[in-house]
């Protein structure tokens, strides 16, 4: 029997345990548990995996990592606009279909794009792809239907079948953009047998688009067809390398293998051309095989591909590829983390459960807050289990026996994140006013670049130069019209420059100011306290410790870049779940350790103005600043007196905080010290 005093004692123990758990969950700004406790299958509205680690990264990461996908004509003027406004990279596709039957590439648009990159100092990521519309070298022609054929027919009579090659010749574009969509499997006079039933009726006299492929779609691994197609792909990779080197110089570009599996990828499997299927086999094996085959070409031609990096583009829209399984020659994993629009609680992900604010797992049904999301960093949060930080992070985690994380295959063989497409569409929010849309894209562009280039992406190329002022376009429509009518760059481009490019140029200028030309040791900073008096929040909880409000101080994003041994440029902002309506400036006190600045200034790259910042306290080895924050990055610039510099390291390798334990791939050890956040009751 439990007595009254014993029950009171038990309740006290439970309360202490609960408070400890709260302190443990939110004890510090950075805690690896914010990432590692969100194992694959769980998601969370409260736990922020981007706060699982905090690094000081070199400013050069920003300066060398900003990019915009080139999808506009008149590339020379467009590339000049990009290069003048802080953009270092672009992405262009030279698909396998650009290769002629003789093995050469003569496409004027591809060559013009390469020349424009060279002329303007942009480094292109060249996308290697085999879009089903023109998947490989082919011969296109037309054929005429001789006799009516109903939908579902497996034979077809044509007026002429001269030159048909069974297994490679086919009917194109019957239901979608796809060369040889239905293959000819046999020819008997002018009647052909088909690889699948006709998807629609064809009347006599119909003119059909036809194609004869140089290579069969990828088939059963090890088969003669498979080997021939794979060898053809490798010849294509080498041809692209030769072309790029001719126009860009040795090592002046990088390669991405494949675009997205969400569309245009039927050529990866022969079974997509047959019904019933051609053969049972592991159709997904080609994903890794094609990346390896590309790496093999680079390894076999070291002089041709010296300085060229390779990324696995099959990972763009799926979470399964990991650095631990990539060939050593592959140094990137690509992602396309487009923001999604969602209204909660209806948009809540249904999976194995939710991690609440106490790091406790709850299975459905459970409380879900109500709010609307459409923000750039969504895949850096735990709102959905497939967040890409699992691959960008210095923390190694396990997903079903496969190790993920940039150092999963060793500290000396990092595999970095590449965002090769991403963008923000104001029209998704119903915004049709160009000026308002451009302002939102300026904010989102600054957030995309500062966040992901800080959190483990080596390259971020946003989509795209063209796409409309209220859509994805980052180059203004008026400049694209100017470029179509002129060959000389405007003397004054102010009226042609989008706010997104203007803000990028201003951030880049601050990163470049005082940048060290030689390597130096990066210094970790620690966020020790964030306080406010307004208690503003992103969404309301239910009043319980497990489901509290998500306060703005909990998503105050602090991203330290370092320009030289004594200069830090810290991008910071409130990671709002929406960019509209705008967030009015909010006051915070931010405490940092690891720096002794003699001056602190704040710069607004959107308005090109200085903002007030007050040094509230400056203890040895740290500083407390009173700052304003809003929904886009402001730059906190901290300068120290130039004391003797530490011994330079071989390369400016970012130092995670908290520091990793014994091995670089192990989980960083949480700091068990008491938390000022909890002590001041400013965190859960």
Which descriptors would you attach to this protein?
seven-stranded mixed β-sheet; eight-stranded parallel barrel; 13 helices; alpha/beta; 684 residues; disordered C terminus
**Coarse morphology:** globular
Number of helices: 13
**Straight-line N-to-C gap:** 35 Å
Compute the gyration radius: what is it? 28 Å
Helix amount: 10-25%
Average pLDDT confidence is 91
- SS strand fraction: 15-25%
The overall strand count is 34
Low-confidence stretches: 1-25, 644-684
Q: Biggest β-sheet, characterized?
A: 8 strands, parallel, barrel
List the SSEs and their pairings.
Layout: H1 4-26, H2 33-36, E1 42-43, E2 54-58, H3 59-65, E3 66-69, H4 75-83, E4 89-93, H5 108-120, E5 123-128, E6 138-144, E7 155-157, E8 169-171, E9 182-188, E10 191-194, E11 207-213, H6 224-248, E12 254-257, H7 285-300, E13 310-312, E14 332-335, E15 342-344, E16 353-355, E17 361-362, E18 371-373, H8 389-392, E19 397-399, E20 402-404, E21 416-419, H9 434-454, E22 457-462, H10 468-472, H11 477-485, H12 499-512, E23 526-531, E24 537-539, E25 550-551, E26 556-564, E27 567-574, E28 586-593, E29 599-604, E30 609-611, E31 614-617, E32 622-629, E33 634-639, E34 655-657, H13 676-679
Parallel strand pairs: 1-16, 2-26, 3-4, 3-22, 4-5, 5-12, 12-13, 13-14, 14-21, 21-22
Antiparallel strand pairs: 2-34, 6-11, 7-10, 8-9, 8-11, 9-10, 15-18, 16-17, 19-20, 23-28, 24-25, 26-27, 27-33, 28-32, 29-30, 29-33, 31-32
Helix pairs in contact: 4-5, 5-6, 6-7, 9-12
